[in-house]
Amino acid sequence: MSTVALGCFAVFAGCGEPSEHGTDQAAAGDGAPHDAADGQGDVTGDAVTVPVDGLAVIELGEVSTGGDGYGPWVPLQLPAGVTTITLVLRSTDDVTLQLAGWDQPGAVDIAPKAWLQTAGTAGVCLAPCANRILAQPGVAAFLAPNTPLVELRSGAHAIRPYAFRSENGNEIGMATKVRITAYLGWSTPARRRLALNVALTGAGGLDRTTAPKSSELQQALATASALLGVAGIELGPIRYRDVDPTLRFVTSRSGPKSDLAQLLASGADFEPGLNLFLVDQIWLGGGGIPGLDLMLGIAGGIPGDPFGHDHRRAGVAIAWGLGTDQEGLLGTVIAHELGHYLGLFHTTEAPGSDGALLPDNLPDTAAPAPQNLMHWSVTTTCKDLSHEQRQVLRRSAALRL
Amino acid sequence: MQRTRHHRSLRAVVVAAAALAGLAVLPVASLAAEVPRALRAWLHATDQSPTADQIRRASAHAQQELRAVARDPKEHRYARHRAVALLSRLADPAAEAALLELRSEPDAALRATVAVALAAGPGARRPAQVIRGLEAWYPSQPADVRAAVARGLAMIPDLAAARAAAVRLRKAEKDKALRQQLDRVIRAGSRGGRSEAQREGKAGRAVPKAR
Hints:
By secondary structure, chain A is an alpha+beta fold. Chain A has helices at residues 2-15, 115-118, 215-229, 259-265, 329-342, 387-394, and strands at residues 17-18, 24-25, 49-52, 55-64, 74-78, 84-90, 96-103, 124-125, 133-134, 136-137, 139-144, 155-167, 170-173, 177-185, 192-200, 233-242, 249-250, 274-279, 281-286, 289-295, 297-299, 316-319. Chain B has 211 residues and is an all-alpha fold. Chain B has 2 domains: 33-105, no CATH class; 109-195. Helix content of chain B is 72%, strand content 0%. The interface between A and B is large, with 68 and 50 residues.
């Protein structure tokens, strides 16, 4: 696999062309459907491809969005054989990031270029996007394909970032700088590993010395590992780290100083892997609903940033204390939230959801499946993962060989 | 008389045996409060929040059923705590009364959740009254519940009133960690701005500018 990645490094280095501003863009290709002059900026950084464990990491540089929130079209040349891409957009914490479009040659676009013009919100792309995309603040990741209804084609792709903020119920485009990274994968091997950093706030009396011996925690991790194991994902290595005990109670998630932001950012210096934070309680609001609600788990993104730890959306949090009286529950919830972080949406959303939520678009989860791991209401009987869900999971750039 | 007593004893044994037999075969869930499936689904949901309307659509008797789940020690812990949280979202006097009643639950962890729920729900609608209630309740509670009251105060939109309450509570508070937590409320109240609940509950949807 590393040979493939190294080979692609050579391909990218060789196909670079100077942009109109004279900046080398190793990822830019001939015949991209849009050029940088279409937007308010240009790719300013040098594209760098680094082979990492079966992946190529391409830094597409930094672009500027205009006052209307739209950035330029950023070209990305996809070599043959690439089976999956995760795009990660980063900006400041006060900005929510979305893709205004993602063109690809000769196939259904991953995000149709005009979808924002007809959508009721920039938050989620439902009907126009067969490949689900979800806006996220500060750091937003997008996985393609996340449905068999979209075929990933090699050749000239182009992506266009969109930045906005919510104010008094309105979404307002913002001028900002957006850094873009692409992770390309060439295959989805049958078995891959997901390294976990279990971050301990003291919830449940657990710390880095007691956690490895806690039968409850080990059982929960074994349950999660078994549930994701059907997709060929093995949890490990598992490391234990202590974090600030004042972060045991999460009661806010909006803004960089919120409890959740501070919690998830507290794993900035952890080893590579997905950060799993154990806390006492999670009280969160959102979705336009006044007040707060008690939750058992939350993921930093759907999908989450597969590599970066140094931001407020890195990882998942689980309310440890509320689930220890049900055998298998916490393990199931851990697997469910890891599933989100790796790229799975709920199979269906709750009755009466008004479209602000985003169910998956997989043909084999279309029928009601209350036993599915990614059902919106998770119980200990939710163990199933469909064939297509397993494919999505295996495409995550967070997995290692 | 002797025969009657014997008959009663026998009947008691039979009833007890039947009950035990029943216990052996019935799943735990069937011992818990009777709740329609749709409402039960919301009680299980781990990362989804319902609106008050969704809760009411899940059951016409949601308030009574949530109260029953919260009070039922046979229910699983998450369901009980989540029922408390959902009561706070209903925004009606009966749900509020149920929350106030739950302050006397023997389970301190549940009372801690009640404190936060009172602040997050009714506290957003009638801050002065809820603050007075929490403040009066505070001294009688163990440290974990007092800590929850402090967390709750930070959620109440009337930051000045929450700050004033925190100042008063801090004077009598001996626990250093709790004083620090109350300090957080005091600092937030001094800065002004919006409470955590206001920030979390903000929102809305709008059409983005198109181009």
